[in-house]
Amino acid sequence: MTSAPPPEELDPDALKAVTHPLRRRILGVLSAGPATATKLAQALGENTGATSYHLRELARFGFVEDVPELARGKERWWRTRRRDIRWPRRSEQSAESRMLFDDMQRQGFEDDLEKLNRFAEQREELPGGWPDALLFARGGTWLTEEELQQFWQDYMELFRRYWRTEGDRSGDRSPEARRVLVRWLAFPDPGE
Q1: Which of 104, 123, 127, 126 minimizes the C-alpha distance to 115?
Q2: What is the architecture of the domain spanning 7-161?
Q3: How far apart are CA 82 and CA 132, in angstroms?
Q4: For residue 166, what pLDDT is reported?
Q5: Which residue pairs from 171-178 have beta carbons closer than 8 angstroms and sit at least 24 positions apart in sequence?
Q6: Residues linked to residue 77 through DSSP beta bridges, in sequence order
Q7: What sign for the dihedral angle of Cα 111, 79, 100, 11?
Q8: How deeply is 30 buried, as exposed, middle or buried, from its count of CB atoms within 10 A (0-12, 13-18, 19+)?
Q9: Rounded to the nearest 5°, which phi and psi values hold at 85?
Q10: Digit-coded pLDDT (tens) for 77-126
């Protein structure tokens, strides 16, 4: 499998750039594969000027990149850039960054729930064993802050072992592979 890029922490300006609602939507479409500003505008119900501008801003902060091998004439194709983004610890964020991050996190949960509901509605139409591919576990355990951080590191190490992206050019991705959304969440029980 392709090795994952090294982890990198976002600075506040990059955090601001990626939390813009249209940019998040652009990244969502690009996560399925490369597209031009025109194709993005059609998919998102926006104008090409807006998608072009926001693509350039995303590129400025390293979230997307050109796909020169797909270009024809003036047509410019874009894809997400392979990155392992880590957010600064909350205690190290400014009040503005916390607000941006909280808003982005809330929107991310809403997006995830919408995708989960869409999967539930369409799962019977999927081929092979894919209708059974909703893997879910819910539990609780008692951890110290240090143990929780180690749990996170162990999870990230496992995830990075299976890292593949749409733009993976290593050739080790099976044609039967589908994009699988993986989410990890842990937080202290507020009732404790």
Answers
A1: 123
A2: Orthogonal Bundle (1.10)
A3: 29
A4: 65
A5: 172/1, 172/2, 178/130
A6: 36
A7: positive
A8: buried
A9: -90, 135
A10: 999 998 888 888 889 888 988 998 898 889 889 988 998 999 999 999 99
Question: For the chain, which residues make up each domain, given as ranges?
Answer: 7-161
Which amino acid is present at 186? A
For the chain, give the DSSP string.
-PPPPPEEEPPHHHHHHHHSHHHHHHHHHHTTS-EEHHHHHHHHT--HHHHHHHHHHHHHTTSEEE-GGG-BTTB-EEEEPP-EEEPPPGGGS-HHHHHHHHHHHHHHHHHHHHHHHHHHHHGGGS-TTGGG------------HHHHHHHHHHHHHHHHHT---TT--SS-S-TT-------------TT-
**Which neighbouring-strand residues pair with 8?**
85
Q: Which residues are CB-contacts of 33 (< 8 A; sequence separation ≥ 6)?
A: 79, 166
Cα dihedral 189→19→146→138 (10° resolution): 40
Could you give the percent of the chain with pLDDT greater than 70? 94
